[in-house]
C-alpha cells in the first residue's frame, strides 16, 4: 500500500480549495425542468429554417423576430447570418422549405419616424435595428434581444392565441412603436386596415396572398400605456395623424414619451375569423399586462409537454439536442380557431368546431413519417384533433389535406399522406372520430384522378411523359393505397381491402432488375433514358421529388420483404444499401436545395431517406443499423445554430432524432411496429396518457459503445429487432446491454421485422395476378411528317402480335396484323394493340400522324413571333414549328412559356398552299401556374397583310386544379393560303382559389400543325 504524506503547510490550502468547491456547488444552478435543455436557436443557421421566437405547444401565435422576408433561407423570417432585425411578427413557419406568414409586425424605435424597414446592407435607411447574437436570449416561450440602434431591450412571450411584447425604452420624447401590416414573409398584402378604438387599443386585419393563397389575420392590440398619438400611412400619402386607415399596405406609428428603462407591454391577440374573435381570445388568455406571468405560464406549458419523455444519462449536449428536437416536434400543427371554437374553413366560411380543437398547417409529406407517429405516443389527444381537423377540411373542400396552410390547400408535395396519419390512429385504437367518414375521405383521395392517380390506378404506374416526378408519386401512392387497404380490412370492407392491397404492389412495376433501381418508364413500358441514379430533380421536374433514384429506391415500407426479393435477396439488398452510403456525397451536377446532410447518397436533410438505415434489420444485419444511426446522430445533429443538416420541416427532422435517440423508429408509420436502432441515453421513460410508463435502458451506452450486445423485455431475453406499439402502450422495460463491438444479436430470421403488403397467408385469396402487356409503340421520332412516312410497330412485351387500324376504329385480333413497315402519305389516325400468346391484350395505342408543313432547317415555313420570349421556357427559334410535339412535362424544353402578354405568331409558307386544318397545343398544369388560354383565334391570309378569321375557341376558368394534360385547339381551312396566324389571349389573373391568386398565369404553347 502506498503511503501518502500531507505537510501541515498544505492543510489550509486544501481546506481553502474544498471551501471554494463547496461555494461553487452551492451557486451552481441545476436544470429544474426539461425546457431548460431547449435551445430554440438550433436550426436558425445553415438550412434549418427554424425561428427562435416565443410560442407554446401547437400555438396559433409564433411571435418571433424577422431579419429577412425573401429567399430560401428566410422561410421562417429569421436567419443567423443576419445582424439586423426589422421587427417582431406573430406568425411563423417552423423549418419549412417555403416561406409565408410574418403577419402583424411591431417594431419599437426612437428618433425620427421611418415607415420602411430598410435594407440589411444599410439598416439606417429604415426602422431596422442592428443586434448582436450575444445579446439574444431564447427559451421555450420566451425571446429577448437588445436593439443596438435604439437602446431598447425587446422581450417576447406568448399564449396559444396572444403574443405579448415588452419593450424597455430609453428616455425619449420621440419614442414610437411601428405597426406594419404590409410586412409579410414571401407573400403580398391584399387587404389591410387598422382602427384606433381607445387610447390604448388598435384593431385591424391583414389579408394576404402567398403560399396560403387567401389568408386572414385579424388582431386586437392593447398597450399598457395610452398613446400620445397615432399616425398612419399607406402608399402614395404622407404620414398623418389618424384613427382609421385602410388599403393594401397600411402602417401605423404609435407615439410615446418614455422615461429611462420604462417598459411598455403590448398584448396582441389574433384570429382568422374576426376582430371580435381576437378580442375574445385576448380576454380569455391574458389579463392585464403582467409579462412575467405570461412568460412563466408558457414555460410551465412547455415543461408539461416536454416531461412526457424523461431521459437520464448522456451528456448535456445530447440532452440539449434531444429536448430541442422534442420542442421542435411540438410546434406544429397550429391551433386555428378562437376560444369560442369558431374558425375559417376551407370554403372560407366561418364554422364552429364541435367537441374538438381545430388546427392548421399540415406538412404531411414530411410529418406522416415520424412526427405523427410520435404524437400517437405522447400527444394522442391532439393527434385526434389533428385528424378531426383533416376530416372537416375534407367535408368543406372535397379533399383531405395534402399541404394545408391557414384554410388553403397549397397542393405542395406529393402523395395523399393524410391517409397514413388517419389509418395509424384507427389501427392503434386511438380513433375518437367517425371512422366511416374517415374511410370515405381516404377513398376519395385514393380515387382522385388528379396528380397522376388516374394513370396509377388504371395502368399501375405513372408514365413519365404524363406527370412530373412520376417515380416518387408512384411509390408513395402505393404506400398510401396500402393504408387505405388496412382501414378497409378493419371496417370489414373486404372487396376494397383486396383492391387497395393489390394497388399497394404497383411499385413493383417501376423496378428495373438490370439497374437495380426503381425508375421511370413511358406509357409504352420502355424505361426512361438516359438514366443517372444520382441525377436529382426538384418538385415539378424530372422523375423524382427533391431527390434521385438512390433516395427513392428503398421506399416500399408496406412491402419491405417484397422489395428485398426484387433486389435478389437479403445479401444483395444489404449490398445495395451499403453502396448507397459509399457513393460520392457531393457532385456539382446533382445538387438541389433540399438534398443535404449527405453520407454518400444517403440524405438525412430530406425525408425520403429517413427510414433507410433501419432496413438493415429486415435483412439480418441490425448492427449496421446501429452503427449508421449513431453516425447520423453524431454528424448531422449538433447543439449549435447550424445543428440541423436540412429543413426542420414542421417537426419531422426532429421527430426522427427523438425516436432514434430513444432507440427505435416507425419504418412503416402505420403498421404499429418500430425497428430498433441504437439508444444513446442510459434510460428513457415515456409517460403514456393511459398511465403506463414505457422504459428503455441502455447499459454501458456511450459514444463508442454503439452496438447492442443483448436485450431483455421485462426481464426476459429479447432478441427481436423491433417492438410493437401494443407493447409500448402496455408499459414495460426494454433493456439493452451496449458494447463497442458488433454482435449477432437480432440477426436470425425469427428476430427480424417483416413487412408484406399482402400477408403471406392471404396471398392466394387476395393477390390478383395478371399478365401485363404494354401498348405497342412506333419507331418514328415524330408523328408529324412531310411527304410520306414509314410506320413500324414495336413492343417491350416479348412474343406479342400487333394488330392495327387506319380508319380510326378500335383494333381487334381480326384487324390487320402487323408484319412489316408500311407507308403513309396523308394524315391518318393509326391505332394498335398488342396481344400475347395467352390472348391477353394491351390497351389501345393512338398515333395521330399529320402530314404538315414544318421547318426542317430551311427558309420556309418561316415563323414570326409577336411576343417576348422567356429565357427559362424557350423551345428555341422554330421549336413550336419543328414537327415535334412536347410532352405533358412543362420542363421538357419543348414548350414556349408566355406570361403577362398575348401569344401571336405568323407562319409564312413561302407560297400559296392548299390547306385543310391548323391546330396548336397548350399545356394545362395549374399547380405550376400554367393555364389554358382564355381565347385562341386562327387566321389565314394570301398576302400577309389582310387576315381572315377562321373562328375563336374559348375556355372557362377552372374551379379547381384539373388533370395535367395538353389540349389542342384546331380550325378547319378550305382554300389556298400562304400565311397562317394564331393568337392566344390569356386570362387576366390567376383565380381566387389559386395559391398565386391575382398574379398573371402562364401559357405554355406546343407545336403548331398546319395541314
TrEMBL record:
Pfam families: CHB_HEX_C_1, Glyco_hydro_92, Glyco_hydro_92N
Domain GH29D-like beta-sandwich, residue spans: 785-845
InterPro entries: 6-hairpin_glycosidase_sf, Galactose-bd-like_sf, GH-type_carb-bd, GH29D-like_dom, GH92_a_mannosidase_put, GH92_N, Glyco_hydro_92, PNGase
Signal peptide: 1-21
Record bears the keyword Hydrolase: yes
GO MF, one example: hydrolase activity, acting on glycosyl bonds
Domain of life: Bacteria
GO biological process, one term: carbohydrate metabolic process
Positions of the Glycosyl hydrolase family 92 N-terminal domain: 37-271
GO CC terms in record: cytosol
PROSITE patterns: PROKAR_LIPOPROTEIN
Keyword tags: Calcium, Glycosidase, Hydrolase, Signal
Cofactor dependence: Ca(2+)
Quaternary structure annotation from Swiss-Prot or TrEMBL: Monomer.
The protein, known as: GH92 family glycosyl hydrolase
